[in-house]
Amino acid sequence: MKLKTAHIFLAAASLATLTVLAGCGTNSANELSSPGYNVNDLVNVPSVVSLAINPQSASAHVGQRIQLEANATLSDGQQIDIAQFVNWTSSDPSLASVSATGLVSARLPGTVTITATRGSATSSIQFTVNPFITRVFTSNKTSNSIQVFDLNATGTSNPVHAISGTNTGLNAPGQMVVVGQELFVANTGAGEVDVFYLQAEGDVAPLRKIKATEIAAPTGIAINTTSNEMFVLSGTNIAVFNTNDSGDAVTPKRVITGGLVATDNAQIALTPGDSSFPNAILVPNTLDVRAFAQSASGDVAPTKILTGPIVGPGTATLLKKATAVALNTGLDNIYVSDPGATDPVVHRWSVGADGVDLPLDSVPGFGAPQGLLPVLATAGLWVVDSSNNNVSLLNADGTVNRSFTSGALSSPNGIVITGSF
């Protein structure tokens, strides 16, 4: 079958070559052929009468790939797959692209037309890209990786896949944010923010990097999708960039300081414009949580400092090592992890809380609660426990809905969830 295929698709090119050579008078007609082929054989090879793409319709989730066939009916009655010999096109490559051999890569949700053409023969199908399968992403400090799990993982689970390896450049990754089909990662040890395709897998390089002297060891990132600004916490300052910035020496739009101390693994949150405490940056600061206006610049005083109540003699306050702040916009509540407490705990306050206000509630029972991710629809909360190498989903009342652990988790830190959750 390979020999006949070669005859078919060498024919047009070979005949064109033969015509030119014949005009030069260098050979007789019977001698003009590629090695092993006779001119008469080339002239009499069957032609493509029609094409049919198989399958006749197809779909995939974002990040998946599907191989299509281009089944040709020839003038001598043969039927063969000629996927590597046709011209493939997509009506919208940003949604689904197709390679020269018919391999379709699903990129963004939507429907496109995939067409195969050979001469006058053509065939088209509708290809549907479904939303990204819902996954749980965890950044892992000691393995320099991002492990990806099924949303319904429970017990001891294996990751679905991972972003890991030398080419990723990951070094003690921290907080992560998803915008569209891009995954932003605070790459703490590398001193940069890395941006990957959401469907990235294996030992792949990031799409782009954002480096600046102001983010020597970034731990927390948050993005305002309205202003397209990215806020990056690194040690004692917050540098503000455009989300599409790229390069090894990017100049931030502005830098915010204001009595911040360098807090290990600190993760930040932004309040929206319709919050009861609007357009603020919430920053864990070891013994307190500080708030700044998102428009702030320079060495400015925080708009408020939340410490929680005094719990002992002198100036001892509730918070011992505030590390991560997360926001439930539906409830207008903030969650604060405190792995430095005698009994490591996650506190919940209203967004408007200030000073020594009591938390609404507190959930103990962790080894070292780190990454936090509220679930808006259920008022639940995902908690990453970096000490016990597990991830738990809490109900609204603080009880554990379910949890999972894995040998792939190694000091897990940040968490994001993608898909139609």
Radius of gyration: 29 Å
What is the number of independent domains? 3
| DSSP strand content | 35-45%
- Averaged pLDDT: 88
Bulk shape: elongated
Number of helices: 2
Helix content: under 10%
By CATH reckoning, the class of the largest domain would read Mainly Beta
CATH architecture of the largest domain: 7 Propeller
- Poorly predicted regions are 1-34
Structural class: mainly beta
Named CATH topology of the largest domain: Methylamine Dehydrogenase, Chain H
Describe the main β-sheet briefly: 5 strands, mixed
How many beta-strand runs?
36
The CATH H-level superfamily of the largest domain is YVTN repeat-like/Quinoprotein amine dehydrogenase
Distance between the termini: 49 Å
Please list the strands of the largest sheet in the order they lie side by side: 13-35-34-33-32
